Amino acid sequence: MAAAIYSLFIINKSGGLIFYKDYGSTGRMDTNDSLRLASLWHSMHAISQQLSPTVGCSGIELLQADTFDLHCFQSLTGTKFFVVCEPGAQHMESLLKVIYGLYTDYVLKNPFYEMEMPIRCELFDLNLSQATQKDRVALLGR
């Protein structure tokens, strides 16, 4: 059973969608919608850094709405990982860091992966499925 996650996006530093996974959300998106959403989030994230009244703002980390939360983690290289989840879902920041670890281990260390290109890696998919299981996400809080 999936955690309280609706979807996961990974965006490269240029704002291109390189990975999208739908976890059975009711409003399933087609490919064009997911590309548009990734591009929009990349732009909003960049604008928020410029609008921040404090120096060194790293962008939006949490966006809360009535029906969902959006949690974002940006790596030092500018790659953004974000999950859309149920409002109030716990341990999403920790989960994003785990997903980043899987990305570095199974995608970046894959000699056949071309940087900034869509992710197609079976080991990444397998380990991601295990990491996003509800019982494993609950363990992140311990």
UniProtKB/TrEMBL annotation:
The record ties this protein, via Pfam families, to:
Sybindin (PF04099)
Which family, according to UniProt?
Answer: Belongs to the TRAPP small subunits family. TRAPPC4 subfamily.
Protein name according to UniProt: Trafficking protein particle complex subunit
Q: Show the CDD domains listed in the entry.
A: TRAPPC4_synbindin (cd14856)
SUPFAM superfamilies membership: SNARE-like
Q: What is its main location?
A: endoplasmic reticulum
Compartment list: Endoplasmic reticulum; Golgi apparatus, cis-Golgi network; Golgi apparatus
Q: Name one GO biological process term.
A: endoplasmic reticulum to Golgi vesicle-mediated transport
Its keywords, alphabetically, are: Endoplasmic reticulum, ER-Golgi transport, Golgi apparatus, Transport
How is the quaternary structure described?
Part of the multisubunit transport protein particle (TRAPP) complex.
Lineage here is: Eukaryota, Viridiplantae, Streptophyta, Embryophyta, Tracheophyta
GO cellular component, as recorded: endoplasmic reticulum; Golgi apparatus; TRAPP complex
